Structure formats: structure tokens, C-alpha cells
Amino acid sequence: MPRFSIIVPSHGVAGRLSLALDSVLAQSFGDFELIPVCDAAGAPAASVVAGFAERDCRVAPVHSPPSAGLAGARNAGLRAANGSYLLFLDGDDTLTPGALAALDARLTETGEVDVLHAEHERVPWWEGEPTNPAAPLLARAPQGVFAPAEAPEVTGVRLPAWGAAYRRAFLAEHRIAFPDGHFTDVGFGGLVTLHAERVAVLRRVVVRHLLRRQGSRLNLPGEHHTDLLDQTELVLTKAAELSVAADRSAPLFEQLFAAVLKTAADPARLPGRRRRAFFRRARALYRRHRPTGFRRPGGSLGVQHRLLAAGAYTAFRALRGANRRASAAAQRVPRPRGLRTRLYYRRQLLRRIDPNLAVYCAYWGRGYACSPAAIHAKAAELAPHIRSVFLVEPDQAHAMPEGTDYAVIGSRRSWQVLARAKYLVNNANFAEGVVKREGSVHVQTQHGTPLKKMGLDQSTYPVVAAATGSFTKLLGRVDRWDHNLSSNSHSTQTWERAFPGSYEHLEYGYPRNDVFYTATARDVARIRRELGVPEARTAVLYAPTHRDYHTGFDAGLDLEAFCEAAGEDVVVLLRAHYFYDRGVRGGTGRIIDVTGHRSSEDVCLAADALITDYSSIMFDYANLDRPIVVYADDWDVYTETRGVYFDLMASPPGPVARTPEELARLFSDGSYASDASRALRAAFRSRFCQFDDGRAAERVVRRVLLGEPPEAIPPVRPLAERVPAPAASTLVRS
Fold this sequence. Notes:
Elements: E1 4-9, H1 14-25, E2 32-38, H2 44-55, E3 62-63, H3 69-80, E4 85-88, E5 94-95, H4 99-110, E6 115-124, H5 134-139, E7 164-167, H6 168-173, H7 184-195, E8 199-211, H8 227-241, H9 246-264, H10 272-289, H11 299-310, H12 313-332, H13 338-349, E9 354-361, H14 370-382, E10 387-392, E11 406-408, H15 412-420, E12 421-426, E13 441-444, H16 462-468, H17 471-478, E14 483-485, H18 489-498, E15 504-506, H19 515-518, H20 521-531, E16 538-543, H21 559-566, E17 570-574, E18 586-588, E19 591-593, H22 600-606, E20 609-612, H23 617-621, E21 628-631, H24 635-641, E22 656-657, H25 660-668, H26 675-688, H27 696-705, H28 728-733
Parallel strand pairs: 1-2, 1-4, 2-3, 6-8, 9-10, 9-12, 10-11, 12-13, 13-14, 14-15, 16-17, 16-20, 17-19, 20-21, 21-22
Antiparallel strand pairs: 4-7, 5-8, 6-7, 18-19
Helix pairs in contact: 1-2, 7-8, 7-9, 8-9, 8-10, 9-10, 11-12, 12-16, 13-15, 14-27, 20-22, 21-25
């Protein structure tokens, strides 16, 4: 009886099969039999195998039809095997030199075990840098022989079938074979885990697994992904039959559903018509087999567990989209990359802080915009000794105003100025890798008055919680803030709860809104010309917010139909959420797309009225004292999914429309600008335009950059004394 039987399915890998067989026959340990499994006598792999069988008597080929799949091929080899231990090697993988000797030595140390797990390397198809994903897992396992309950993370569900040696008598005793269908490793590994009593690990690479250029066939789109549920059901049903204790069944249950949820969350794997059915069946399995006392994992995965158990497919689908957006956003976040860059940044941190250097950034580098730009401009006027650098993404560098010093995010210079600046001003957050140095001053300007839940308040809303990521990291970023701007008492109270920290609230207003009180009639006319607004037309700004439960931009309104119904003098300025900014698109007919325009403040100045749903732009636009209409066709869904701080329907800034017909009627009959509309707007302005008076940037510069005491800062002018920039319709009437 040989020590090892090595079973090698060969379907579809004739081109690399000889490498796999050579790697076995070249082993220094020779007590083995090699069992290649071929499709048929005339198949390409069969001729390759025949040559090896002629040269070496240890090669004993068997046949299995292609229709039997991988499971059938492995089972055919298993039936023919005579060795004490079985190894399964894919036909395009190889054994590492000395692998069998290492396995034999380890088995001699441990004595007879049911399963011996070993490390493996995953090698990119271009022979790039290999990885060893099993190493961290096996490093946590006990040194000697252990029962599965002692190391529940080491199971055949998480490790590939070809990454272990199996005692043949153990498999025969429990009649364990590879189940039919796809994802057969999951079913086989789960059954092995349920029956095994003695397990050990070998902390050495045994197999080099080739990652194919086209990727794993299992990851391709198709209905074969439903087989994963078959394998999951097979394992969990067997666990129930065996009355497996919770200390073994719970970890196995969690590992199985980690794979199920990964498939359910990937729209590229399942056809659209099958996703809901997959989710529904997974829910049934989850509820039927969930172990008593099972504790869900934390984080986003735990949220997915809750949604699956509740059968909340719509929310799960929304969470899936939020996770993808979060992942994409995370990839855009700059960090010191590479050892040289990290060392360079660390060296810069050792240098003295430059007391006259300020760094600005807006919207994660989207350009020269928002309150950081307004503070930057005012600093040039009031604090010219402060050298200012704006951080931008590479594709925004060309749009920087002439004479503005900037650095591209991720460049060495960007990390240099971030390390040495005395003042750091942002309306979002700087990269995770940025260190808060003692003596530096971080100013968080925010970028809107909060209607929707923010910060820690998002934790009870699964969809947005997943997009937020780690709340621990969020609080770490908040701890860097020294000052936080607010435009009204509502915001101050909200920020304190949503972003708890030791920073100082500056109730100075939003610097970006200063222009609403400083712009002239000439500025308004110029901006309208630049945007292509025809003269004597009523320009209605339509600015819907982002929906966390939607993927991609949806206007939510037939704008052409709206224009026709609202009146022949109406044109629409469409400004989508900045998530959907793809550059300036310009206008066509009565719809002018201004999503890519750099300044939302300019767009507001050009508009005679605003239509929005739940966007924070309404709070900024209210400073202009121009008509605002709320289009709330999905308010109930939005509040349930996103969460809000107050009932906008009870205290809107103007009339509320629920349907496209109601919306068009408000403009066709002029009620959007009625006395009732003005009364609603007045109450709204009194509450939310509390500190915006045209001097917010000046107050920030004097207080932060010039160090003037709070009592010396210009006070906020009363609302009744403020004069907003004139609307174009007012100029026409004049």
C-alpha cells in the first residue's frame, strides 16, 4: 500500500498537465501512486498521460466522462486509490519540491490524523508575485493534533480540497465523496469537517496553484451559482442529522453563509431573474439551519446577515450598491503608497511645522470649490503672509484658477505639505494616513446643513452604515479636528451628536455662501450667459440628492415634460449630485446640464427658483430668498432608508409636490412664488440661515489664520439687515 495516492483531474488542462505530473514524479519521496483522470482514451490529455504511464509504473490513469464534471473525476480517482492518504491536485497546479517528504514527516510526527491541512501559493498567470492565503489561518491553529472544535476557523469550507491530505480509511468509513455540481469543494470540505476528529496542519507550502488569466470558472456569471446553495444545504442537513454541537456547527454555519452572501451581493454572478430567487432560498436555509445561540458577525457582514434573516431583499440590494460605492470611494482615498513614499512622509513629519503654510482640499480633491476655496480666497486678501496650497486630483489640475498653487493628491509634494502645514482646511476629510501633528490646526468646514442622518447617527441605518465603513476610523478622523464650522444652531447640535469630539464649534456660517450676499447684478447676468441661459427666461434649478438605495443617477422626473407643462418661458438647470459628476455637459434645448460646473454657488445665483427633493442645497439657496419647491415623491422610502433629523414635510422651505403633475402646476399657475410660499421660506430662512451673512470666510481667517480673539471677530448681521444678490427675474422687472 503506497503512502500517498495523488489524484489529478485533467479535463481542459492538457497544455499544462505535463507540468503537474512532472512535479509529482520529481518528488524526492517516492512512495506514491499517481492517478491522472482523463476524459476518454482519445482525449488530448489521454495521450499526454499515456506517455507518462509508459515511462513510470506508478502512473495509473483512470477515465471519467466530461459530463461527470470535477466531482466525478475526483471520485473516479478516489475509487481507484490504494494509498493511505489521498491528495487532490488540479491539472494545471504543481507540487512544490519536497512536498511529499514534508507531508510524510509531519504525519510521522502527528500519528494517524483524518486531515492534514497545508499551506499553498496562489501564482498569477503571468508568474507574478505569489501569495500564501492559508498561512495566517494555519498559523493560529494548535501546534499538535487537535479536534475541529479547538480551531473552528480551520475547515475545508475555507481551504481548498487540494490543500490537504486525507486519510483514505476515514473517507471510506464515513462514505465521504465529492458531491455533484459546482462548488463541490464546499460540500466535500463541509462533510470532512463534520466527521473529522483528529486534524493537524503543516506550515509549509505544498501546492502552487495557478490563477488563470480568465479567472475561476466559478466566478463567471451564470445559474451555476445556485449550486452553492445545494452544497450549503447538503452540509447543514448532515450537521443536523449528526446533532453536531454548537461549538462546531456555528463557525461552519458562518463560513458557509459568508460564501453565500458574497455571491448574493455580487450582481455580476447571478442573472437578474435569479438574484431574488437565490436570496429567497438562502433566507429559507438560513432560518432553518441557524444554530441556537448563533451570534452574527460585526460590521457590514453582520448587517447582511440581519437582512438575509429578515428576507429584506430590497434593502440587501441597496446595501450591495452602497458597498460598491464605498469600495470605489475607498480606492480614491489617497495614502502614502510604497515604502519610499511612506519613509518620505515620515521624514517630513520630523521637520519643523511651517507656521505660514496652509493646505486646502474640497470634496476629496474634486477641485477648487466650496468653503475651502472661499477661505483660500479670503486668506489671500487678509493674510497674504500665509502660503496656501490646494490639493486636487490629477484630472482637476487643469481647472485650478490661474495663480493658485496646488499639489496633486498622492504626489510627494502633497505629502510634504500635509506633513509640514500649520493649517489644514477641508470640507470632507484628509486621507487616513495623514498624521495630526501637535501644533497643527485642522478646520472642518462641512459641506451642507444636515437633513439626512450623518456620522454615528447612520449606524442604525444598514444601507448607509455599510457605505460609511468603520465608525472607529470615522472617530479617528474627527479627533483630528480643531474647529468645526456651522451655519445654524441645528447644525451645531447635529454635529455634536453625529461627530463627537473635542473640537471647537465656530458658528460663523458657511464661507461658500458668502457670495450669495456679495454678488452683484452684473455677476448674475455673467453667470447666466456662461451657462447658456436664454435672456428673459425663468431658470429653474433642479438639484436632486443621491439615493443610497439607487445605483447610478436617476433624474426621477421627466424634465422635458415638466418644461412643456410649466410654461414656455421655463428652462431647467439640471445639477445631479456630485457622485455623478462626469464633467461639464452643457445644454440642449430647454434642459441645461450643469452637473459638471465647478461652482454650485454660481449655479444657484443663475437660478430664479429651486426644485429639490432632500438635498442640502435648499439650505444654501434659501439665503437668496428665492422660491423653493420640494419634490417629495419618495419621502417615506427616503426617511426609512436614510434617516432624517426633522420632518421636512412639516416645515418645508416652500410648497411640496408629490407628483410630476403637482410640480408642473405650481409653476404654470405661479403658486411656486405665492405669498404662502414666501411665508414658508421666511420661517425656513430664520431657522437655517442663522449665521450666513456674507462674512463667514472673513471670520474664519481672522479667528484661525490670524489668531484674533473671539470677541474681536465681526458679529453676525441680523437676517433683516442682509441683502441677497438680485435674481435675474427681478432685474428684468426692474
